[in-house]
Specification:
By secondary structure, this protein is of the alpha/beta class. It is built from nine helices and eight strands. The structure holds 2'-deoxycytidine-5'-monophosphate.
Amino acid sequence: MPLNIAIDGPAGAGKSTLAKAAAKELGCIYVDTGALYRAVGLFALRRGADPGDAAAVLPLLPLIEISLQFAENGQRVFLNGEDVSEAIRTPEASDASSKVSSHPAVRSFLLDLQRDLAAKNNVVMDGRDIGTVILPNAQVKIFLTASPEERARRRWRELVEKDTTARFEDVLAAILERDARDSSRAAAPLKPAPDSILLDTTGLDFSQSLEGLLKIAGKAAK
Ligand code: DC
């Protein structure tokens, strides 16, 4: 069985940056599963469908084909052949992704794609339900978190580089709202797998966090 490392945790915990670096270090591909939900959310927005309304989103699923490509500098996401890797990163797409991800049919629509990748490749896969639902047999499961304020600060710093009017309070409110929705939904809510190891990166810089993650991965993969 290929090496499967599952990293779950709330928005803004630094999962993607850390998972990408860890994957490079460990010779795995890095799979960002949030991008899949974002692509579905983006498609719903473009079609004028309310992402929170299952009845509006479900008929769209047969019209969606998502594929991933793994390049040296990270994953690219294709929605019906179009590279949407940047388009899925707007605040609107973030909100829509969280909403569509609450529909069980959307989750099962994306399940096989994720499992296939992990069955064929050594992967570091990040998301919300990787250790609990997608890859219950992953050799390493990490629950990566940080305080909401710290996570909002990190997101805000990224956003403000593109949009200088971005307000910290708005970013924090959006994070808290998304946390609540991701954790309280009935379908595959965000929660640590019982056999996961908690890594709290509050107050840790990137290299300290990466060191912590690699230590856990190294120990658990043995
Ligand atoms: O990790 P992210 O912020 O790009 O994820 C976008 C949304 O997708 C997030 O609000 C919750 C959802 N998601 C999910 O439900 N399950 C996953 N494995 C990954 C993301």
